[in-house]
Every structure is written in C-alpha cells, then in structure tokens.
Amino acid sequence: MVPPSPSAAHSTAPRGARFDVSAFDLAEAATAGTHLRQAVVGAGSAHAAAQRLADFFRTGLVDRHGHRACAEVRVFLARSTAGLGDRTDPDASTDGGRLVVREFTAGDDGSRAAEVDAPAAVRRSEPVAGPSGSSSLLRLLRGAGLWPADGDDALPGEIDVVLLDHPAGKPAEQPDQASAPSAASAPSAASAPEGAGRLLAFGGPVRAGQWFAVTLLVDQELPPGITEFFRPVAHSARLALLSADEPSAEARLEASGALTASMEALVAWRAAQLQSAVEDLRSTSARLRRSEDELRRRESELREEAAVVELLQEVGSALAAELDLDALVQHASDAATRLSGAAFGAFFYNVLGDTGESYLLYVISGVDRSEFDKFPMPRNTQVFEYTFRGLGVVRSDDITADPRYGHNAPHHGMPAGHLPVRSYLAVPVISHGTVLGGFFFGHPEPGRFTERHERLVTGVASQTAVALQNAQTYRREREAAMELQRRLLPRLPKVDGIVTTSRYLPAARSRGAGGDWMDLIPLRDGEVALVVGDVMGKGVRAAAIMGQIRTACRAYAQLGLAPSEVLEQLSVIVDDIAPGCITTCAYAVLDRHRARLRLAVAGHLPPVLRDEQGGVRFLDEEIGPPLGVGRRAYPEQEAQLAPGARLLLYTDGLVERRSRPIDEGLHQLRKLLAGPVGEIEADCDSWLDALAGGQHDDDIAMLYVYRPEDSARRTLAVTREYPPVSGAVPDARDLVSRTLRAWGLAHLANDLMLVTDEIVANAVRHARTPLRVELRRSADRVVLEVTDSSTRRPRLIVSRPEEFGHRGIFLVDAIATRWGTRMIDGGKVVWAEVSTS
Predict the structure, then answer these.
(1) 82: burial class by Cβ within 10 Å (0-12, 13-18, 19+)?
(2) Which stretches of 197-248 are DSSP H helices?
(3) What is the tens place of the pLDDT at every residue in 494-539?
(4) pLDDT of res. 482
(5) Cβ distance 583 to 574 under 8 Å?
(6) Order of strands across the sheet that contains 818-824
(7) Of 137, 129, 132, 136, nearest in space to 1 by CA
(8) Do 216 and 201 meet the contact criterion of CB atoms below 8 Å apart?
(9) What is the band of 584 on the pLDDT scale with cuts at 50, 70, 90?
(10) Res 361 pLDDT > 70
C-alpha cells in the first residue's frame, strides 16, 4: 500500500460534466469520452492519469437526482516484468514473468493508490481494500477476459465492457493453492441479472505488456445496453492512459482508430435500435389505427343497435297505447320504413264498413301520398299473393328479375310513373290466422334488404297485429256504446216561446260513450221540464243505466211532480238498479207564461243563467247530494227566465280537464256567457271550441235554452237540399240572395253569397251524399249552415305561392262574425254567422 498520489487531489471531472448513468445514451457516450480525455491532459504519467480517471468516474457519474452514482471506483494498471526491467517502470520488480499491478481507488474514504504483487495476492487471497478486495476483483476481471493471467505476455483480447456481480454479495471462496481460477469459474455478464449493486467493468490492453481495468460499483438500476454505450468510454480511457505515457505515433493512431471504430459501431448499433423502434412504432401505429377503425366501426354499430332498440321500444309503447286506427297504421308504417332502410314503404290494411263489407285502405311512408293517388289498389297478383294471403315473407334483391314478376295485365309490372323498385320486401300482418294487412317496402337499388331487416320488420308486424286487434275491438266497443247512447238520447221537441238546442260529445280520449244525458219534456199548462245528468263510468253499462234513469225521469215528469220530488224518486230508483253508482242530475221546470224557473240539483254542477240585461250567475243556492243515496228530500230554488234570458245546463266534461281545475273552467264559462251572444247553435259551437277544443277528458252534454224577446224577432229559417254536384253552388247562392232580400237584408247578400260559395263548394268536393243548406235569422244574426256527409273539417291552411287551394276559408274567416264546424251523426255541419247590424 502506498500513499495517495499528489495528483489525485485535483483530478476531477471538468466543471459541469455530469452524466446520468440511468439515462446513459449515445450523446453521453461521446461527451463523456471527450471530457475523460480532457481530464487527464497534463497528468505526466500513466499512474497520474489512472488516478484522474478514478476521480473522474467518481465525481462525473450521477443518478437521476444528481447524486453520485458510484459507491466505489477502482482503476487497475498492470505491466509484465518479462523483458522490460527498469526501462518501463523504475518501481517494477525484475522477477521474470510476473505482473506488477497498481490500483487507484476513489471512494468515500478518499483517493488512494496501492501496489500489489498479483500472483502472491491471488495465491494467498489477500484483500487489498476491505471486503471487496483487489484479488477478488482481479479474479472476476480475469474470468470476464478483461485481465491477463500472470506471466502471460499475450493480450487478453480487445477492449471490452461487462456487467458483473459484486464479490461482496457472494460467499467467500477458499483459495486453490494448485491453480488460479479459470474463466469458467467467473460469473458471466450474460447470465448476471441487471440491477442495483452491480459492477460495471471495462478494460483491456493499453499496449504490448501493459493492461488497464476500471470497475464501477453502481448501486442503482442501469439502463439496458449500458455495456454498449460504455465501449467508446473504455476506448477513451485507454487513449487517455496511452497519451499520458508518451506513446509512439503508431500506438496513438491505433488507439484513436479503435476509439473511432467503437464509436461508429455504437452509432450503427444505436441506429439499428432506433430503426427497430421506428418499425415497432409504425407497426404499433398501424395496429392502433386498425384498433381505432375497429372501435369506430363497433361504436357505429352499437349506436345503430341502440337506435334500433330505442325505436323498437318507442314503436312497442306507441302501438300498445294507440287506439285510433288511422294513427296506428301510419305510426307502424313510418317505424317499419325507418328500420328497413327502404326508400319508401306502404301498409295496406283491411277495414269493415258500416254494412259489414271489407275494403282496403293504405298509408304511405317516406314519400308524399300524392305519388300513389293515381294508381289503383294492388290485386292478388303472383308477387302480392304471398303477402295478401299471409303465406309468408317475400324478400328479393331484384324483384324485376323474380320469375313471378310482370305476369299480370294491364301493367305487366309496375304502372307507368310508379317509383322505381328493385329491392323488395313484403311482410304480412296476421292475427289468429286472419290477415289484417301487409307491409310493402321498396328501394331503387338492388340488394338493400337483408335478413336482419326482415327480422326487424317481422317484429313490428307482430306488434302491429296485436295493436290492430286492440284498435278494432276498441272501435267496435265504442261504436256499440255510441249507438246505444244515440238511441237513448232524445230528439228535442220544438216548444213555442223558447228556442233550444243541445250537444252531446263523447270523451276525446275514452273507450266509449259515457252516461251523460240531456232531455226536454213538454208538460201540461205550458210548462216544460229541462234535464241534464251524468252517470259515473263509461261504455255500455253506463249508457244502459243512463237510459233507465232517463225513462224514469220522463215518467215522473209526466206525473206533474215538483223538481225536488222527481229527484227524490230518482234517488230511490238509482239505489235499486245501480247501487253504488254515483249519478248527478239537475232538473228544472220552466213556466213559460210566468217566466218562472223552479230548479233542484242532485250533486250536479249548477246551471248558469244570463238575464235579459246580460248579467250572469250560477244557480247554486241549493244543491243536494247525488242520486242513489236512498230517499232524500232535495231543496228547490227559483229564478226568473224573462224574455231575452238564456239558460245553460251542462255536465262537468265541459269545464273540467286534467290540466285545468274545475274552478278555472267555471270562471271561463261565466266569461263566455257574459260576452257577445247570438244565434244559439253558433253559441254552443263557439263555447265548445273555447272550453273543450277536442281535448276534453269526459263526455259533454249541453242543453241551451233561449227565450226570444217577442214574436217578431223569432227565428226565421229556410232549408234546401242539393245533390253533391257543381250546380249546387249557383243554386245555393241564388237561395241566399233571394232569402236575404225577402228578409230586408239585401246589404248582406254579397258577403253571404261569397261565404256560401266556399262552404257549398267544399261540401260538393268532399261529400258523396246530398247536402243541406239552411239559412236562419235570429234577433240580430243571420246563420248559414251547410250539412254534408264528409268528416273532413275545413281548416285555415297557408298556401304556397304556386298553389291555388286553401284560400276560400280565409275569405269565410274574414267575412263571418263567427264560423265553425259541428260533427253530427253521418257527417258534419259547417256554419257561419253574420251580424245584421
């Protein structure tokens, strides 16, 4: 052991030269070699240069946090004494064939240099520097091919870099006196796992007879390929040691060439790595793109599936809740067309007419219905037969190539002007073995309908079949209840001295007629009974109970019983024929000679009275319980119905709705009666539109009574019937003109003739039966009514500039004081009212 070399104190890495061994790469390898060679400039000898190398590695290699990466650094120099003598090293031994080894250390206890007799140390296993002594390190280096055997003048090989297990981490080995350890006994760099506490060693020949080795004890993770990156560093260390010992030009040139070659090999190796990484990245990018495309495709498929599921749920819910046949088939056709992806679709379905005969109707989806108006209904041709007979589904990629296509006259295919069809799909709608109709879909391109489309449409067809059965059952039940209701409701008789009208409307969203009724019963001595009532419930049962109560009411009225007595008797009857059935009723008797009204109310909404001065009040002073609670005494109240006064009796469906409190409806009714009034038919229609508007939740029954002020102002009326031909229009104009002149209202003739033109022309266009024209004068109003068999209501529709239709109704709206439509059995009444003032 010898004291540290004086040069060790200042042999450190240049300022700022720090290299992170955890991220050592090509740039670090080149830069570290340059700084390493600069660090030994001016060392003066190989020993001083070796100490500076030790100090450089100790201070220049850091971890990712900037702390020293090497716990210990050792540099070994060796010279063979064979044939060299004092010429090469004055301190070297002259024993032939022996190695003289100097060790230079940079550790936590400071730098020091030591000289060891290599063969003796190996034989005795004498540690030079504590637990990890030089002898153990030299054995490792010899086994790795970085250090020559004793007395071996041959070079140990090229400059090399290895990664070894530290000897301190292995059990101590017993010295072998017979022989030195062989290379096979040393740990292999290839077999040693990378990790903390490893020896990074490199070395080899400096020149003939002279070797060096550097061991770096690193206590942190080292990056892959660290040995490759340290090869140029190892060659730089050799060149630095060689330069400090006055080498020949040939030796220096050879060392520089070796350094350049190692750097070029590293660059080539790193380039190959980068190229491989680029290829991997390209492959990964391609896989990612394929994955992204697949994800987008799957996402699109999932969105489509979600939309299909949502649409199927929507269709199922809508069809299950829909009871209107026209709305049902249109909704089903629209949904099936969307699910099939067809250019257009149609649903042909069978309905029963009033006479029980079956006929075919259809709806269109995807295109305007007018595209098909000019074509006849399809027949059981070879293509359509499978569907109309319910034999199965027909799906064709090109129906024009189907052998069943084109055999039937007169078209032998599709009629001229028909939308082009190549792809064809037809699905029958069958319920309990009965063909209710069929879906038909077309597309101008071939091969558009798949098995999946067929399954989806077949599912909609199944739901449609159930919905059609429900709708038809509902329609039959509703029609039966309505027919019973119509048969039971009276036709109001004409009574001198009063003008009356009535209305009955079934609920807009109900399964059938209810138990609402109104009645007018002439009595002796100029009296007349006015009745309105409501039996709880819907359908045939409610209508039947209502009929029995109405019959009993008429019988008690004919006995001349007072209103309170009639209700008392009816309460007993209701308790007998329908126990537990809530029934309300308002019963009044009008004495026309005395203008006196006697009224009793059993749980019903109070009638509303408008007096001759226009004041409005509800007759709600005395109201008893509903009928059906046994024999009860019902209180009576009296009111005056003087000439010019009006009385309205009604059921709760007129003023009560789910979305509107009944108090609000009653308030609105009071405002309507307090406002302008005129001809009673028009008044009724106007109030119904304002209060119900076709959205009423319950049946509505109304009885409206008006006492004219004097006989001179009683209603005058003229009625004519005309066939539904164009000649009816001028005939009706002539009737209106002559009648108005006869009434002294010639100034209204032009306006009313214009109104007549439009209303009668619409009736002629849409009706198939004779129409009736009625002109009435009442007080200060003239009313025109046109009755026809069509259920199509006239509406205000804004026409496009190129259209000529839908303009006449704007003329009616501009001329008439009020106008509207009243639905009746077998058709409708369109009315218009004009003031005579």
Answers:
(1) middle
(2) 226-243
(3) 887 889 999 888 776 655 567 889 999 998 767 899 999 999 887 7
(4) 64
(5) yes
(6) 716-722, 771-778, 781-788, 827-835, 818-824
(7) 129
(8) yes
(9) very high
(10) yes
The percentage of residues in the chain with a pLDDT greater than 90, rounded to a whole number, is 24
CA dist 662 → 60, 508, 654 (Å): 95, 18, 9
Quote the mean pLDDT of the chain: 80
409 pLDDT above the threshold of 80: no
Task: Please classify residue 130 by burial: count the beta carbons closer than 10 Å to its beta carbon, then call 0-12 exposed, 13-18 middle and 19+ buried.
Answer: exposed
From residue 412, alpha-carbon distances to 375, 389, 409, 441, 767 in Å are 14, 21, 5, 19, 35
Question: CB 190: neighbour CB atoms within 10 A?
Answer: 7
Tell me the domains of the chain and their CATH numbers.
6-247 (no CATH), 322-480 (3.30.450.40), 489-710 (3.60.40.10), 715-835 (3.30.565.10)
165 neighbors 187 (Cβ within 8 angstroms): yes
Q: What is the DSSP letter of 785?
A: E
Give Cα separations from 160 to 237, 268, 390, 601 (angstroms). Answer: 12, 17, 89, 119
CA distance linking residue 498 with residue 706, whole number of Å? 6
**Of 604, 606, 480, nearest in space to 536 by CA:** 604
Q: What is residue 656's predicted lDDT score, i.e. its pLDDT?
A: 86
Q: Give the type of residue at 191.
A: S
Asked whether residue 714 carries a pLDDT value surpassing 80, the answer given is: no
Task: Starting at the earlier edge strand, list the strands of the sheet with 637-640.
Answer: 514-522, 527-538, 583-591, 596-602, 637-640
DSSP 660: B
Q: Is residue 700 within a helix (H) or strand (E), and if so which, with residue range? A: strand 700-706
Q: Is the distance from CB of 163 to CB of 198 less than 8 angstroms? A: yes
How far apart CA 333 and CA 344 sit, in angstroms, is 10
What phi and psi values does residue 789 have, to the nearest 5 degrees? -90, 0
Closest by CA to 345, choosing from 421, 239, 407, is: 421
Helix (H, G, I), strand (E, B) or coil at 188: coil
Pair 698, 741: CB distance under 8 Å:
no
* Residues 6 or more apart in contact with residue 406 via CB below 8 angstroms: 400, 412, 413
pLDDT of res. 3: 38
State the first-to-last Cα distance of the chain, in angstroms, to the nearest integer.
139
Interatomic CA distance for residues 348 and 513, integer angstroms: 30
Sign of the CA dihedral 129, 135, 140, 141?
Answer: positive
DSSP 624: B
Q: Which residues contact 559 (CB under 8 A, 6 or more apart)?
A: none
Cα separations in angstroms, 112 against 105, 201, 218, 241: 5, 19, 19, 18
Check whether the bond before 410 is cis (ω within 30° of 0): yes
Cα separation, 597 vs 640, in Å, equals 6
List % helix, strand, coil for the chain (3-state, nearest 5).
40, 25, 35
How far apart CA 224 and CA 24 sit, in angstroms, is 9
Burial of 156 (0-12, 13-18, 19+ CB in 10 A): buried
How far apart CA 402 and CA 385 sit, in angstroms, is 14
In 59-133 the beta strands, taken as DSSP E runs, fall at 61-62, 70-80, 99-107, 110-117
pTM of the model: 0.46
How far is the C-alpha of 201 from the C-alpha of 745, rounded, in Å? 127
| Planar angle of CA 12, 14, 16, nearest 5 degrees | 120
- Residue 697 is encoded by which pair of tokens? 């939740």
Place of tokens 């309205």: 648
Q: Report how far apart, in Å, the C-alpha atoms of 476 and of each of 360, 468, 481 are.
A: 18, 12, 9
Distance, in Å, from the CA atom of 506 to the CA atom of 516, rounded to the nearest integer, reads 9
Supply the angle between the helices 680-691 and 662-674 in degrees, to the nearest 10. Answer: 150
**Tokens representing 485?**
């209701």
Residue 119: C-alpha distances to residues 100, 134, 135, 184, 336 (Å): 9, 12, 9, 19, 98
